[in-house]
TrEMBL record:
It comes from the Bacteria. GO terms for molecular function: serine-type carboxypeptidase activity. PANTHER family: D-ALANYL-D-ALANINE CARBOXYPEPTIDASE (PTHR30023), PENICILLIN-SENSITIVE CARBOXYPEPTIDASE A (PTHR30023:SF0). The keyword Zinc does not apply. One of its GO terms (biological process) is proteolysis. This is D-alanyl-D-alanine carboxypeptidase. Belongs to the peptidase S13 family. It holds the Pfam family Peptidase_S13.
Amino acid sequence: MRRERGVALVTLVLLQLFVVAAGAHLLTSDVLTEKAPAPVASAEPPPVPVITAGPVLAAGGNGPLPAKGTLAGRLTEALGDPALGDSVGAAVVDAETGAVLYGSGAERGITPASTTKVATSVAALASLGPDARISTRVVRGSAPNSIVLVGGGDPTLTARSSSVPVYPRPASLAALAMRTAKALKAAGATRVTVAYDDSLYSGSRTASTWKPGYVPEGSVAPVTALMVDEGKVAPGSHQRVPDPSRAAYTAFVSLLPKYGVAVAKPAAKAVRAKASAGAQEIARVDSAPMYALVERALTLSDNDLTEALARQVAIKEGEPASFEGAAAAVVRVLARLKAAEGVRVFDGCGLSPKNRIAPVALARLVAAAASPANPRLHPIVSGMPVAGFTGTLGHRFVKNGSVHGLVRAKTGTLDGVNTLAGLTTTRSGRLVTFAFMADKVPPGWGKAEAALDRLAAIVAAS
């Protein structure tokens, strides 16, 4: 997982074939439904009616099931690779029926590492919906000519130039400052005091189950409800600021004078203050929609964003926006989906080595996300890295080039842990999901990654 944070985002792979099919359908529909002109007397024979063929693309993923004996034999042999160690679990599930096509230690809880993000993403989309956004606001303070910057928990809020191309497009701190200044000047205020409110989140800023080095090495920032650029000290840097909330506040205050509003320096103890209930909002910016945030979190294996998603679930579900509250809320949502069995989590992103998810539970979560019955969950599929092309799989499957583009999967990496969970269509056209997990991996993570890639390639070729 710590390697995954450095993988650059490549344009997410879209389902172009389905777009083409939809376009073809629209063209043929227009031909058939357009009102015909009134007949005109003519010696010419009547036009031949247009007869359309069937759909350009038939529904996929419902081909015959792979032969269990052949699949089991090949997977069992590959699972014995010494690079995976002696604590390995595997599950292959038919996406349509949920039937287990292959299992080995499939119901035993294994450290999932970053594949925990699949569970968090399912909960976020199911609880909040794909169109939900996270807002950062400025409200009036209790004193005259005072304002409060209120964090809503959006770690993608950026202080960078809006001209930098990023997907999904983040909310801009500069835009918030500009809107704030415009509202203040319209009300006759050109000098204000500014405080910040990051009280939406509660509890510790780092999980008790995290290793102490995660923040210093840059794997994750202290989790706060107010931050810009995921708490990084500079673009492209992994290093994090010690107090993301105060850094965001400082950046916001520095922007106001550029838009004609001077900032009076308050006493240091007054900088952090809770906004009054019902305080008048004077400006706001919103994050990208939830579906795009989930796609980004999965493609980039973004720890900061996934922790924020978990807390948004906690708020929606009426739990404290803490590590404990978020974990309880995620499992509650999964229980409503009848997908909580075999899932035990202590954080949202998977940095906790105490998380446990059974391979069959993880494979079934992916199957739920791919199901036509759960369209709200489909961004999980579109957000998963694509073998040989995007995100944390962009450099993978080097020796399995025949499945480039055919496997979508979420990776997971911690010290001694390597996991891979995703989906593919078999050679016979059956959509299946899988989870391969090892949490006692010998030194040399590269060999374990290659072993997991071979397992996924076997499923794709079955």
